[in-house]
Amino acid sequence: MGMHTRTLLLSALGVLLVPFGAEAMAGSDPANVAEVMQSAEQTQTNLDYVWTILAAALVFFMQAGFALLESGFSRAKNAVNIIMKNVMDASAGALVFFAVGFGLMFGTSWGGLIGTDGFFLTGTGDQPQTWVYAFYFFQAVFAATAATIVSGAVAERIKFSGYLIFSVTITGLIYPVFGAWAWGGLFNGSGWLEALGFIDFAGSTVVHSVGGWAALAGALVVGPRVSKYAEDGTPRDIPGHSLPLAALGVFILWLGWFGFNAGSTTAGSTAIAKIAMNTFVAAGAGAAAAMAITWIDGGTPDATMTLNGVLGGLVGITAGCAALTPPYAILTGAIAGLVVVYGTRFLEWYVDDPVGAIAVHGLAGAWGTIAAGLFNSAGFSLSQLGVQFVGVAAAFLWTFPMSYLVFSLADALMGGIRLNGEKEALGLDRLEHDVEAYPEFTTGHDGQPSTETEDAEPVAS
Q1: Percent of all residues in the chain with a pLDDT value above 70, rounded to a whole number
Q2: Average pLDDT estimate for 312-333
Q3: How far is CA 169 from the centre of its chain?
Q4: pLDDT exceeds 80 at position 2
Q5: Contacts with 1 (C-beta within 8 Å, 6 or more apart), sequence order
Q6: What are the E-state strand segments in 267-349?
Q7: What is the largest CA-CA distance in the chain?
Q8: CATH homologous superfamily of 39-423
Q9: What is the pLDDT of residues 238-272, one digit of tens each?
Q10: Which of 121, 222, 300, 338 has the highest CB neighbour count under 10 A?
Q11: pLDDT value at position 297?
């Protein structure tokens, strides 16, 4: 009886396994193997699309972070103006990059300098149309980021119309031209900088330094805010109206930066793990370093500098996030935090930058680009370091003069893009948009806005 039962069980098991054996045999057929491989490739392609679009959405969400950061670091009477500038950086930027910027940056290259096709996303060669859409979306939100960096540096005293002129220009011309030099080969172009081997994986220089140098030009052309400097030239502190808003903005930017850096793979691969980790720890190191140095120097940990230290660490690691080991990512972020603190203190004597954008994006971006060559996990190379310096210099020599020219031309054609002292005191929200962000708190019984700057105290040297 036992033998018979075992025989029945083995027979039943054999019947059940027949389909699996047949499937395995079918799988060995070359035609079926090819089909399986094609399916796997299609799955990977789909994953690449999903990751690229998701990362682009995260980068787009950074606009909210910039809006909160800049408005929090500015006075309440200018908060609506800050929001409007950020909205238009994304909105107008998307349109002008679609029409002109994308083609200049990624079209078939003319001498490694600019693209010559791809305008309005037409004439993109053999690129699949669906990938053109995905790649445009990802790159357009990067372009908008470069534009919105400028917003904070010229906050509280530039006419909205004058700012819009520059925002469209940087998105449609200034940023795409430099981008073509460094990143054109990501699509149909071939830039002269990338031909040298320039390393800037996600844009410490291409996005952030370009934005930072443009911010420097804008701040110089429009000049400082009323009461920013004492009669002897000593800079005064003009506090923003909400550090909590600014902090929330920093956290949103930190989140979006994972899309910024890891998304620059434009591929759903295991490479994003290292990039995400480097991004995270570099930001933490930047914040810790900035907090520590202000605590040592001033006796208390400075919240504003700590927040900007986070951003400095993020900007600093953006170029080398894929090329550095985690310890060097931490070192790069920490040094970026120090660059932000000392850079802000130095620049404040010469240029009024309400949010510290020049130090955070311009200086920390330059440092991060150099660090990508200095600490490259592939090994140190003097020639590579030289290429990194060339890229940093090229970004400044292209962006700063062009931005200064555009701001100056707008100033001349509009009869001045700077609001005078009386109008500045009124606030851009009421003057430019006929609305107040906090109507219950920013006006007195006579309907006039408060004048926070009159009580500003000199900054200790």
Answers
A1: 90
A2: 98
A3: 17
A4: no
A5: none
A6: none
A7: 110
A8: Ammonium transporter AmtB like domains (1.10.3430.10)
A9: 999 999 999 999 999 999 999 999 999 999 999 99
A10: 222
A11: 94
Backbone angles phi, psi at 231, to 5 degrees: -60, -30
Mean pLDDT for 73-100 is: 97
Q: DSSP letter string over 31-84?
A: HHHHHHHHHHHHHHHHHHHHHHHHHHHHHHHHHHHHHHHHHHHS-GGGHHHHHH
- Report the alpha-carbon distance of residue 334 to residue 321 in Å, rounded: 14
Name the 3-class secondary structure at 450: coil
* 129-153 vs 175-183: helix crossing angle, rounded to 10: 130
Residue from 191, 348, 376 nearest 278 by CA: 376
CB atoms within 10 A of CB 176: 27
DSSP assignment string, 170-203: IIIIIHHHHHHHHHGGGTT---HHHHHT---SS-
Q: Which of 88, 233, 99, 210 is nearest to 149 (CA)?
A: 210
Question: Which residue ranges make up each domain of the chain?
Answer: 39-423
**DSSP SS3 for 123:** coil
Contact yes or no for 302/344 (Cβ under 8 A): no
- Distance of alpha carbon 109 from alpha carbon 173, whole angstroms: 15
DSSP state of 114: E
Q: pLDDT of 376-427, one tens digit each? A: 999 999 999 999 999 999 999 999 999 999 999 999 999 999 988 788 989 9
Would you tell me the crossing angle of helices 303-318 and 271-298 to the nearest 10 degrees?
150
The mean predicted confidence, pLDDT, of the chain is: 90
Q: What is the dihedral of CA 365, 53, 269, 66, to 10 degrees?
A: 30
Tokens of 111: 């001498």
Q: Which residues contact residue 180 at a Cβ distance below 8 angstroms, ignoring those fewer than 6 apart? A: 104, 105, 106, 109, 113, 114, 115, 189, 191
Which two tokens mark 298? 């001033």
**pLDDT at residue number 441:** 77
What's the whole-number mean pLDDT along residues 363-376?
97
On whether the CB atoms of residues 399 and 176 are closer than 8 A, the answer is no
pLDDT value at position 177? Answer: 98
Enter the tokens of residue 242: 């909400």
pLDDT for the residue 456: 47
